[in-house]
Amino acid sequence: LDMNLSRTFCDMKIRNNPTPWLDKAKEALLKRMQTWKRNKKNGNSE
């Protein structure tokens, strides 16, 4: 990730206020990573 983008995510992460957008983005990324892992394990390529 670009350093500015990475720093922005880090700043948002440590805030006390809830960040629904960041939570949704995190969930989507984790879901995508699980799908990728599962496909990689099964020998499928994307």
Keywords:
single chain; RteC domain-containing protein; 46 residues; 2 helices; 74% helix; mainly alpha; elongated
Uncertain ranges? none
Q: What is the oligomeric state here?
A: single chain
Query: Strand-and-helix sequence, N→C?
Result: HH
How far is the N terminus from the C terminus? 21 Å
Organism: Bacteroides uniformis
Protein name: RteC domain-containing protein
Describe this structure in words.
There is one protein chain. By secondary structure, the protein is mainly alpha-helical. It has a domain at 20-46. Helix content is 74%, strand content 0%. The chain contains 2 helices and no strands. This is RteC domain-containing protein.
Gist?
This is RteC domain-containing protein. The chain has 46 residues and is mainly α.
SSE layout and pairing:
Blueprint lengths: L2 H12 L5 H22 L5
